[in-house]
User: Fold RNA methyltransferase, TrmH family from Maribacter ulvicola.
Amino acid sequence: MVVKSELKLIKSLQQKKCRNEHGLFVVEGKKTVEEVVNSNINAYKIFAVDPSGLKEEDIQVEKVTARELSQMSSLKNPNGYLGVFYIPKPIERITSDWVLVLDGVQDPGNLGTIIRLCDWFGISDIVCSTDTVDCYNSKVLQATMGSITRINIKYMNLESFLSETKLPIYGTFMDGISVNESRLPEKGIMVMGNEGKGVSDAVAQLCTDRLAIPQFGGVTTESLNVASATAILLHEIRK
Amino acid sequence: MVVKSELKLIKSLQQKKCRNEHGLFVVEGKKTVEEVVNSNINAYKIFAVDPSGLKEEDIQVEKVTARELSQMSSLKNPNGYLGVFYIPKPIERITSDWVLVLDGVQDPGNLGTIIRLCDWFGISDIVCSTDTVDCYNSKVLQATMGSITRINIKYMNLESFLSETKLPIYGTFMDGISVNESRLPEKGIMVMGNEGKGVSDAVAQLCTDRLAIPQFGGVTTESLNVASATAILLHEIRK
Assistant:
């Protein structure tokens, strides 16, 4: 049985404020829980309706009822497994050749997809503006599919980060130079902007190069989804 | 006031079966409603809490209460505007140089993003297997951002469609040839598979070319999200 105060604590982790206060975050679903357990992220507690379903034998799993699980879960239909983990401290040092910078990305699904893309393309560092959606948001974690454990994500003031680097800073803009006509260097920073407003003015001024993904045919749609644009740009970086 | 039977009808359109039965689909949100109104798709009825907010003057808008709107809406927080439209008949003839084929894509957000990508890259024809998620699903429509009005989407047996074409059929597979080393022709068919299972065996046998998007660094993530992969491939087609 899970005590009431613990149910309340876990439920509260759906809010960013409470996650930061307690230094904990929640992951749901068997596969993702297992992936985080197997990473260097420390587990606080793992709950399962059927603990025997988990492959890990040396991990402490608390058996819960479906009702208890649903009281902790952020999902309409909880899927049997919920893990609470300690939020890892971001690594200060940038180790990736290319760094992805996110300037105000708001949609959790987009951030989750972008984290997964970085994992695929071997970009191990993401630097987010402080107004970017929290990467420990449950919807972000659902979309990352475990990639969160392999990417170093920092939230900080972008202007101070970008003004200190000597790397070329590529920003994506509607009126930029076609990425098809650009030769991307071996190292650099790629800035992706907010879904509606794009890159902020302050950050745009720090960009050394302005890129665009060319549209084909009539100009009808307003923009590419930021996750789709990131997919294309990371692919170009790695070609 | 909206009569009860009409509320019930509109609510029922959240189910594919009912959409097909009545030949109607629902769009929510001011911007998307306006975009569909301005397309060649015929409106059945438009509802708004504040009809004066809509730009269109020559369109019949029924004023509804917030309560009535929430009874029709599929959203937790309905956003003031809801349009019911007639499902357009797909155009038989393929007009696009490249055709995108979807073999069992299940996630509505993925299909919505893919439709939007086709719009951006000027691919006007999508052919879906009959087990692909319905493009008039509300979550698909939310993700398409109005692109649905510009793309011709057909659901049919893929084997019969693919066995009749003379175009090269590119399938995407984990073990395919790197898209970076392939020269894509001016016309062709690009097949994207299901999120978990990829391209089905029957369809794979009809593919003339097997493509892959190369991963970078350690092989850690299982796969690219299908919408991200589509973004990269359509970009390559248009380069």
Q: What stands out?
A: The mean pLDDT of chain A is 92. Chain A touches chain B at residues 109, 113, 116-117, 119-122, 145-147, 150, 180, 213-218, 220-222, 224-225, 227-229, 231-232, 235, 238-239 (CB under 8 Å). Residues 174 and 212 of chain A are 6 Å apart (CA to CA).
